[in-house]
Amino acid sequence: MNGTHQFDVVVVGSGAAGLSAALRAQYLGAKVLVIEKAPVIGGTTAMSGGCIWVPNHHHQSKLGGSDSPDEAMAYIRAVSPEGWHNTEEAQWRAFVDEAPKMLKFVEDLTPINFVPNREPDPYAEAEGGKSFGRNISAGALRTGLVGPWKNKIRLPAVIIELNYEEIVDTFFYSQPRRWALKFAPRLLWRRLRDMRTRGNALTIGLLRGCMDIGVTLWTSATAEQLNIKNGHITGVRINHNGEQVHLNTSKGIILASGGFEWNAEMMARYFPGPVEWTASPDTNTGDGQRMAAEVGAQLDHMDQALVMGTTPVTYEKRSQHGLPAADYFLPHSMVVNSRGKRFVNEKQMNVGLAFDERDPETGEPIHLPAWRIYDAQFATKYPHALPNKGQNGIFYWAETLTELASKIGVDAEGLEKTAVRFSNFARNGIDEDFSRGASIWDRNRGGDPSHNPNPTLGTIEVPPFYAMPFKASFLGTKGGSRTDAKGRVLRPDGSVIAGLWAAGNVMANSFGSKGVGAGTTLGPCLTWGYIAGENAAELAE
Fold this sequence. Notes:
6-stranded antiparallel sheet; FAD/NAD(P)-binding domain; alpha+beta; 15 helices; 8-stranded mixed sheet
């Protein structure tokens, strides 16, 4: 495979952004190659929950909802960080305008059937917010659809055979036994047919679509250096299975290589402090950001990332890989810092913002280490969510909160006072400190609907008591090349680097760390891939 090869467009990365870009560019007549660093396809997308945030899409009417571009823009402006409208307005508008087109295009060109769910916007009460309708996900698909590639789809850390909507619309986390019985026949059917759900289903569908229209795909192909001539990107040098290969392009390169959360040097620079239990593939080492910078790109939002609390799992023989946790917002649970105090509404979607809150002088996290605290009531009602007792350094228990505090290095007096205060809130149904359970999001996304008076609050007062460290884990960084509304990479002076586009987490994400909805990673990834693919194929100027 050594030597030189010619394509119209080369896409670097095979996650949602990369496959969406390839699908669109090839459909418009370009000869497209997708290169993937790993030996498997799908990147972070294949490991994800598969939720996609798309305003004003064509499936919303199925749930009796309605939407408009103006409402979506009003919502994004209302909930985005202060001042971001000054730099991101054009990006937001492009996303809002193109996302519904992208969804219809993907559905038409692939075997994916998108299924809407009733998950609300996390700030549904804000101007333009919706109590349901903007979230959607791919229905289950057989691995056999991709033929020889079926064993080259990246596996998630834990295979979950339920679709996204089946989990969120049923409050599955609080009542798994009830719903497992109901879903048992379809789960058996999926297992027998080797069907995948969530991010795996999305990957399978996109890959099948790319295969059907002739996209070429190479795995174990690492992009090393962009070729530039007279300010125009003309190709890329790669390492493919240990051999140097030169790829020349007539139209250009689309970077879709993900974040840099596995690059120790870059993480130390932009995210000082402890980073544990990273939840993405270890191939996300910032190759796209580095190569773009080398040819003069402006890097922006490098301090933005999707940060969540996670539970450790073993993935690809690596222990303590992070799996996003789904237990900490159930009743009889809370999260505290080393002072034994709560510091956030545990139920809010952007809980990671609090975990990543840093001292302005030192750059160190203010609230970490943090701990999940449970009691015997939690263990009785939700045993499936209790930490694994066999994990050393992960699971702690004691007959008193004082003893538990001593074991985990938390201020005992602070923990006891917090538990008493939290329990009083639970009995009254009102969280006077952080309003947990008060919003539309809190009441309709997770929690236990059978628990009163507040489905997310329960007393913490019945021994024994349990603790588990709540690590701040990176699901993906969100900084990279600044682009225009066509996905073209820009220099610091605002000029376009001809022949270079960026999509997904390798670009300067216009939403940043604060997601405007569940799925505001995948939604923009798919959409910016679609935008970049279209403009690369057409060589828009």
